[in-house]
Amino acid sequence: MKNIVLFGPPGAGKGTQAEVLKEKYQLVHISTGDVFRFNIKNETELGMLAKSYMDKGHLVPDEVTINMLNAEVEKNADANGFIFDGFPRTEAQATALAKLMEEKNSQINAMVALEVDDEVLVGRLLERGKSSGRADDANEEVIRERIAEYYRKTDILKKFYQAQDKYYGVDGVGSIEEITDRLSAVIDTI
C-alpha cells in the first residue's frame, strides 16, 4: 500500500498530478476540500459540525477533519493506497494522520512536494483566474499572500517528514508528462 501526502503551493499542479497519479497507481485521491464540501452538501453529522465552526469563521478542529478522513479511508478499505491532498497542514495533523494510518496497519510512505518558483506560481494562478472565475486567482496580492501563507505553515511539515526520511521535493515546472515522470521516479522507490 502506497500512501502519499501530495504537497505544493497554490498553482503547483497538485490537482492535475493527483488525477494522473491516482490512475497510474490505482490510488484513491482524498482532497480535504472535496471531503468538506461533500459532507456539508450532504448534511452529514460531521459536515454539519464542520459547518458550525466555519459559519463562525473558525477553523474546523483537527478531530473533526480526521474523522472525515477516516470515513473516506474506511469507504475505500480495499484501496492500493491514498493520495492525501490538502492535509496535513500542521504537525499535529501529521501526527494524527500517522496514528490513523497506523490503526489501519499502514503508514504514510512519503510527502512529495511540487516545488515551483513563486513568479511561475503567480503567473499560473492569474492565468487560471481568467478561466476559472475563482476570485482568489484573480488578485495578484491575494495570490502572493496565499503562497506566503503556504510557506509559513508548511515549513514545519517539511521538517517533520524530513526527520523521518519521507520528504521528497520534485521540480514542478515543465509539461504535465515531465512532472508526472519526476513524481513517478520518486513513487516507484517507496
UniProtKB/TrEMBL annotation:
Q: Record-annotated residues binding AMP?
A: T32, R37, H58, L59, V60, G86, F87, P88, R89, Q93, R134, R146
Q: Name one GO molecular function term.
A: AMP kinase activity
Its GO biological process annotations read: AMP salvage
Q: Which UniProt keywords apply?
A: ATP-binding, Cytoplasm, Kinase, Nucleotide biosynthesis, Nucleotide-binding, Transferase
Membrane as UniProt keyword: no
Tell me the segments the record calls region NMP.
31-60
Q: Which top EC class applies here?
A: transferase
Give an example GO cellular component term for this record. cytoplasm
Subunit structure comment from the entry = Monomer.
Cited function: Catalyzes the reversible transfer of the terminal phosphate group between ATP and AMP. Plays an important role in cellular energy homeostasis and in adenine nucleotide metabolism.
Listed name of the protein:
Adenylate kinase
Gene responsible for this protein: adk
